[in-house]
Design goal:
With 294 residues, the chain is α/β, with parallel strands linked by helices. The chain has two domains: 150 residues, HUPs (Rossmann fold), CATH 3.40.50; 98 residues, 3-Layer(aba) Sandwich (Rossmann fold), CATH 3.40.50. Helices cover 33% and strands 17% of the residues. It is built from ten helices and twelve strands. The chain has a three-stranded parallel sheet with strand order 1-2-3. It has a three-stranded antiparallel sheet with strand order 4-5-8. The chain has a two-stranded antiparallel sheet with strand order 6-7. Strand 2, helix 3 and strand 3 form a beta-alpha-beta unit. The radius of gyration is 20 Å and the shape is elongated. The two termini are 35 Å apart.
Length: 294
Amino acid sequence: MPTSELLRPYRGRFAPSPTGPLHLGSLTAALGSWLLARARGGEWLVRIEDLDPPREVPGMADQHVADLAAFGMVSDRPVARQSERVDLYARSLERLRENGLAFECRCSRSDLAANGGVHVACVEHPSGRQAAWRLRIPERELAFVDRIRGHYRQSLRADTGDFVLRRSDGNWAYQLAVVVDDAEQGITEVVRGADLLDSTPRQIFLQQCLGVPTPTYAHLPLLLDADGAKLSKSLAAAPVDPGDPLPALRLAWRQLGQDEDVVASARSVGHLLELAIAGFDPLRIPPTDQTAAM
């Protein structure tokens, strides 16, 4: 790890989307990010990613915060909500536009279907009624080292193309919002599920375009059901019970590859987390996806 990173105060975050209740996969991601922050003596923040109103469940954002507290994890700073930060995204898009890095595009998904949905150039007669804003992507290969998964490489133009910054419906795209938020909140390490691993090169490139720091990354193993499907998309993804938090916390601890005996004697949430901090070994986190231990 570079000396400059060791000198920066550690700050991590957990950023759930309020589209459904917390399940074992999301609890494991929360616990993993919380433990990695505590292991470095750093801060842990909660940010609600509520930029997709059609998919959001009313009241779920507040429920997430309450459920996390029931599992002993409380944000060290006031909880941020992306829906209240749109001015930051607008200013960042304007900077990219002024620098010739962002452009309007009326290509619809059907227009790009022949190229697998990847935008390398606007079609001659785009069918979209409203324009989206995209980031102009050059021919470039981008690589980084993930703290858990190791080396990862992606050809940006071939694999992602000119990706969306603001959607044609006016809503802000995830890639821009997460980059702006991580920079503005001073996040030094992004800990999240491995389903977002392939988004990371795009985000690093966008950070470079905006001239903001690039955090380190640690992508936790996804939890899979017995059929190999991601748990959050499975019928097995039952909500965890904040009224009886110890069983789910023990399961999440096990899914992070940690020694079950470390927390076996815990009889309260506070005691379990105290034992977990003392016995946490980041090197035991599996570098591959895991079948959920239900």
